[in-house]
C-alpha cells in the first residue's frame, strides 16, 4: 500500500508534471485537524508558474480525485486533504497484518550498494562512550537502508596506523614489560605516560615520528609490536560489538590502504594537482576557502587524508557504491570537505555520492573525555552497568534468573543504544542514567514496555485475527489518530534514510507508544460486550505491536516478549 501522503504526492505529480519527491517533501500535516489530515501549500508552485498561490490551489484541487481521500478543498493558498475515516482502518490494518514485519519496507534500493563507514575505533585506545553515537547511528542506517532494499556494506575503518603507533611503540619499549599479559587499558596507560613524559622531554615526539617511519618501512620488530597491539585491541572490541549485536562486513582499517596510497599520489601527480609546500606535498584548496589538503609529509610518510583517499577509490572499485556514508563526528567536517573536494577536482562526478553523516558529542556530567590525559569511560563498562541497573529493577518480578538476565540485557543495552539515537544526531548530548532507564519517558524501556503490554493484552483476549472484521467500527478519535500514525510508518523510514537520521524513527516509536497508551486508556479492549468492536480493536493492537517492534529493530534495539 502506498501511504496517503504518497498517494497525494503521486496525484499532484500527475497533475502538475512536477517531480514526486519534490512534492512529497512539501506536503505537511496541519496542526489543526479542521484543515484536514494533510495539506499542500502552493507557494513554491506559485513562483514556478508565476500565478497567485490561491489561484494555483483552486486550479489543482478542481477535479482532483484520490482513492482513500474523501474530501479535497482549496483554502486560500493551501490544498487540504481529508482521509476517508470509514475506510482508514480497513486499508491500514489489513496492509500491516498482510506484510507483518515487512510493513514499511521497499524495493527502491534494489541493485544499489551503500557503503557505511561507522564506529571506526582506534587500536590501542579505549572503545569509549564517545564512540556510542557513530556505532549506533551507523548500525541503524545499515538496517534502515537494508529495509529499503539496498545492498549495505558495513565497514569498520579501524584506526590502526599513524604516528600514535610510533608513540605507543616508544612507550612500550621504554616502560613496558614483555612478560606481562596486556589489555587495552594497559596500552592506554602507556599512551598517557608517553604524553606526560613528552611534556618534559620534547625529543620523545621526534623519536616517535622516527619509529613510525620505520614501521611504515616494515621493520620487523616494530611490525611485530604493532600486530600485537592490533590483535589484542580487536579481540576486546569484538566483545563489545557482540554485546551490541553489531557485525561488520569489512574490518579494513587504515593499514590496509598503506600499499595503495602510492597510486593516489601518482594520480594526483598525473593530474598536476600536487604542489610542494615546506617540503610536504599538498593539494591547494585556498580558492574553496579551505586550508591545503596535505597528501604526503616532508619525511615521506603518508597521512590520514591520503589513506582516506585510497579507501575511497578502493571502495568505488570493489563495491561500485551508490553512496558511501561516513558516520564520523562533526569535529571532522573540514577533513571530509577537503578529501571530497579533492576527489571532485580529480574529475570524478561521483564525488557527490560521498556523504559525511556528522554528529554531535556524547558527554558525561563529569565533563569531556581525553585519552591523552587518561580521562575516559569505556563503553563496555557503561553497557554492563546498564545491565546491572536493570537487573536491580527486575528483582522480585517473578522471573527465573535466566529470564531476568536475558531481559536485563535486552532492556539495558537497548536503552544505551536508544539514548544515542533519540536526540537528533547533530545535537550534543549528556548521558544521564535517569533518562536512559526511565520506563515512563522518551526511552526504549518505555517503548519496550508498551510492546509487551500490547502482546500481553492480545494473549488475554485470545482472539484469532480473521478477514471478517468490521473495521468501520474503529471511529473513536484515539483510534483514528493511532491509525493515521501507523499509516505513516513507511514515510518515516524513507525520511530517516534521506536525512541519514535514525532519530526520526526513534521519535516515531515513542510517539506511537504514547498514542497507543491514550487509545488503551480511552478505548477498552478486554471484557467488551460488543464482540465485533473487540475484534477490530484487537486487530489494531496487533498492527501497533508489529510496527513498534519493527521500529525498535531498525534502531538496533531488541523487543522482549515479557517485562
Could you characterize what this model shows?
Among the domains are: 4-83, Arginyl tRNA synthetase N-terminal domain (Gyrase A, domain 2), CATH 3.30.1360; 379-554, Isoleucyl-tRNA Synthetase, Domain 1, CATH 1.10.730.10. It has 21 helices and 12 strands. It has helices spanning 4-16, 20-26, 43-49, 53-61, 85-99, 132-147, 163-175, 184-200, 203-216, 220-244, 261-270, 304-319, 333-345, 379-393, 401-422, 433-436, 444-461, 477-487, 489-499, 503-522, 531-554, and strands at residues 38-41, 69-75, 78-83, 113-117, 151-155, 274-277, 280-283, 293-296, 323-327, 354-357, 362-364, 429-431. The strands form 4 sheets. Strands 5-4-9-10 form a 4-stranded parallel sheet. Strands 1-3-2 form a 3-stranded antiparallel sheet. A 3-stranded antiparallel sheet has the order 6-7-8. The mean pLDDT is 91.
Brief overview, please?
The protein has 563 residues and is of the alpha/beta class. It has 21 helices and twelve strands.
Name of the CATH superfamily of the domain at 379-554: Isoleucyl-tRNA Synthetase, Domain 1
- Give me the CATH fold name of the domain at 379-554: Isoleucyl-tRNA Synthetase, Domain 1
In helices, the fraction of residues equals 40-55%
Broad structural category: alpha/beta
Total number of strands: 12
Percentage of β-strand residues = 5-15%
Mind describing the biggest β-sheet? 4 strands, parallel
Rg, Å, rounded: 28 Å
CATH domain class name of the domain at 379-554? Mainly Alpha
**Spatial order of strands in the largest sheet:** 5-4-9-10
Amino acid at each position: 500500500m502506498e501511504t496517503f501522503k504518497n498517494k497525494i504526492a503521486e496525484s499532484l505529480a500527475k497533475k502538475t508534471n512536477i517531480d514526486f519527491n519534490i512534492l512529497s517533501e512539501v506536503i505537511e500535516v496541519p496542526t489543526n485537524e479542521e484543515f484536514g489530515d494533510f495539506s499542500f501549500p502552493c507557494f513554491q508552485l506559485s513562483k514556478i508558474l508565476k500565478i497567485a498561490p490561491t489561484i494555483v490551489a483552486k486550479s489543482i484541487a478542481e477535479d482532483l480525485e484520490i482513492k482513500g481521500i474523501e474530501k479535497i478543498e482549496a483554502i486560500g493558498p493551501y490544498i487540504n486533504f481529508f482521509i476517508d475515516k470509514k475506510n482508514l482502518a480497513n486499508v491500514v490494518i489489513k496492509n500491516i497484518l498482510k506484510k507483518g514485519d515487512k510493513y514499511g519496507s521497499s524495493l527502491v534500493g534494489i541493485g544499489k550498494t551503500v557503503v557505511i563507514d561507522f564506529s571506526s575505533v582506534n587500536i590501542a585506545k579505549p572503545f569509549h562512550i564517545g564512540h556510542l553515537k557513530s556505532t549506533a547511528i551507523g548500525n541503524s542506517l545499515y538496517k534502515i537502508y537494508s529495509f529499503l532494499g539496498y545492498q549495505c556494506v558495513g565497514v569498520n575503518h579501524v584506526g590502526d596506523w599513524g604516528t600514535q603507533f610510533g608513540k605507543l611503540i616508544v612507550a612500550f619499549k621504554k616502560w613496558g614489560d614483555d612478560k606481562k599479559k596486556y589489555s587495552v587499558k594497559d596500552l592506554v596507560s602507556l599512551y598517557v605516560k608517553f604524553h606526560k613524559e613528552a611534556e618534559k622531554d620534547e625529543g620523545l615526539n621526534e623519536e616517535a615520528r622516527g619509529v613510525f617511519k620505520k614501521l611504515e618501512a616494515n621493520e620487523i620488530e616494530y611490525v611485530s609490536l604493532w600486530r600485537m597491539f592490533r590483535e589484542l585491541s580487536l579481540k576486546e572490541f569484538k566483545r563489545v560489538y557482540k554485546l551490541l549485536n553489531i557485525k561488520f562486513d569489512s574490518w579494513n582499517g587504515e593499514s590496509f590502504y598503506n600499499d595503495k596510497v602510492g597510486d593516489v599520489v601518482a594520480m594526483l601527480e598525473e593530474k598536476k594537482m600536487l604542489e610542494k609546500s615546506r617540503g610536504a606535498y599538498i593539494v591547494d584548496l585556498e580558492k574553496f576557502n579551505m586550508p591545503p589538503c596535505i597528501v604526503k609529509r616532508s619525511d615521506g610518510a603518508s597521512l590520514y587524508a591520503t589513506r582516506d583517499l585510497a579507501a575511497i577509490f578502493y571502495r568505488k572499485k570493489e563495491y561500485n557504491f551508490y553512496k558511501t556514508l561516513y558516520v564520523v563526528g562533526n569535529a571532522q567536517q573540514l577533513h571530509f570537505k577537503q578529501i571530497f573536494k579533492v576527489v571532485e577536482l580529480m574529475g570524478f562526478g561521483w564525488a557527490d555520492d560521498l556523504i559525511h553523516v556528522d554528529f554531535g558529542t556524547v558527554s558525561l556530567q563529569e565533563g569531556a573525555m581525553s585519552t591523552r590525559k587518561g580521562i575516559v569511560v569505556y563503553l563496555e563498562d557503561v553497557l554492563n552497568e546498564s545491565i546491572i541497573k536493570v537487573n536491580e529493577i527486575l528483582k522480585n518480578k517473578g522471573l527465573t534468573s535466566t529470564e531476568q538476565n536475558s531481559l536485563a540485557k535486552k532492556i539495558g543495552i537497548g536503552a544505551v543504544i536508544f539514548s544515542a539515537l533519540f536526540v537528533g544526531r547533530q545535537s550534543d548530548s549528556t548521558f544521564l542514567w535517569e533518562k536512559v532507564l526511565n520506563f515512563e519517558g522518551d526511552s526504549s524501556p518505555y517503548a519496550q514496555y508498551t510492546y509487551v503490554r500490547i502482546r500481553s493484552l492480545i494473549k488475554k483476549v485470545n482472539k484469532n485475527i480473521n478477514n471478517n472484521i468490521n473495521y468501520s467500527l474503529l471511529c473513536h478519535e484515539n483510534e483514528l489518530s493511532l491509525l493515521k500514525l501507523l499509516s505513516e510508518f513507511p514515510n518515516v523510514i524513507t525520511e530517516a534514510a534521506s536525512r541519514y537520521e535514525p532519530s526520526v524513527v526513534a521519535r516515531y516509536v515513542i510517539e506511537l507508544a504514547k498514542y497507543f497508551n491514550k487509545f488503551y486508556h480511552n478505548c477498552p479492549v478486554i471484557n467488551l460486550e460488543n464482540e465485533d468492536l473487540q475484534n477490530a480493536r484487537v486487530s489494531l493492537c496487533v498492527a501497533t505491536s508489529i510496527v513498534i517492534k519493527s521500529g525498535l529493530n531498525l534502531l538496533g534495539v531488541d523487543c522482549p516478549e515479557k517485562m
